[in-house]
Specification:
With 271 residues, the chain is of the alpha+beta class. The protein has two domains: 105 residues; 155 residues, Immunoglobulin-like. 41% of the residues lie in helices and 21% in strands. The protein is built from four helices and ten strands; from the N terminus they run αααββββββββββα. The strands form two sheets. A five-stranded mixed beta sheet has the order 3-2-1-5-8. Strands 4-10-9-6-7 form a five-stranded mixed beta sheet, covered by helices on one side. The longest helix has 37 residues. Bound molecules: copper (II) ion. The site of copper (II) ion has 7 residues, from loops.
Length: 271
């Protein structure tokens, strides 16, 4: 069993029914949940221990002041307190390094070349998801061509043939079990692309092209929200991730690609 499999099993064993997070649907989320639950239990234990030490130390020292504990013993108590605090610092350092190692494993390793490519664009106050079509290449976009009412919210340049089969969806549809590489952009201000059920959060920043890769493993519908206060309509900036079986995804993709091809042909005939 690999590390993720082992941790996935551990997560199942740790499911107590009082978890406040939504059910996890991503492959990497099991490791994150395991880390967070473990750290919270550890921190609760340390909190209790620290308060016991805080009570125990002064009580012992008061006894020393009344002569019932020798000066040498008092110094010993002080040494024990310092040692306990040093041990606590070491535990915190270990927790930090453990979290950093997990972050590096998930974020500093790029997606596999076979990962599905989807572009995510945030704009006040919508999320758009662009699929590259059968040529697997995104067409160029121009901000001045962006026209949501005219059916081209992202400003896909009709002069670029690579964009003719691109299609834009208001729902992010992905097949379960396949890695996806999201290309994240913003058209206006900073938005926060957040899928709690996938344990995924990344800002979309104007002028930057950022990537986010993950593998959904559970079929279902997962809310997508904006985690940055991006304007007066911020609370309406919501969308959905629909994770389906590979067969359902293939059928959905074929339908959308046919529709995009028909629209492109109609636009060409109208010119
Ligand atoms: Cu936003």
């Amino acid at each position: 069993m690999n590390q993720r499999g082992a941790i996935s099993g551990a997560h199942a064993a740790m499911s107590h029914g009082w978890d406040w997070m939504p059910a996890n649907g991503s492959r990497h989320g099991f490791v994150l949940d395991h880390l967070m639950n473990g750290d919270l239990v550890l921190l609760l234990g340390l909190l209790l221990l620290a308060h016991l030490l805080l009570l125990w130390g002064p009580l012992r020292r008061r006894k020393a002041d009344h002569g019932s504990v020798s000066a040498a013993h008092s110094r010993k108590i002080f040494t024990v307190e310092i040692a306990a605090l040093c041990a606590l610092c070491l535990v915190y350092a270990w927790m930090t390094l453990d979290a950093q190692r997990l972050w590096a494993t998930d974020r500093y390793t790029g997606p596999s070349p076979a990962a599905l490519q989807v572009e995510v664009v945030g704009t006040q106050f919508h999320w758009y998801f662009r699929y590259p079509g059968q040529d697997a290449a995104f067409g160029h976009t121009k901000p001045e061509l962006a026209d949501p009412a005219g059916g081209n919210p992202l400003g896909i340049d009709p002069a670029d043939a690579a964009g003719h089969d691109d299609f834009v969806s208001s729902v992010l549809v992905l097949p379960a079990g396949r890695e996806v590489d999201l290309t994240l952009r913003s058209q206006d201000v900073i938005h926060g692309f957040f899928i709690p059920g996938m344990r995924l959060k990344q800002d979309a920043v104007p002028g930057l092209v950022l990537h986010l890769h993950f593998t959904p493993v559970s079929a279902g519908v997962f809310p997508i929200v904006c985690s940055q206060l991006c304007g007066m309509g911020h609370e309406h900036m919501q969308a959905s991730l629909r994770v389906v079986s590979p067969a359902e995804y293939t059928a959905w993709l074929a339908g959308r690609e046919r529709a995009a091809a028909a629209a492109s042909a109609a636009a060409g005939a109208g010119q």
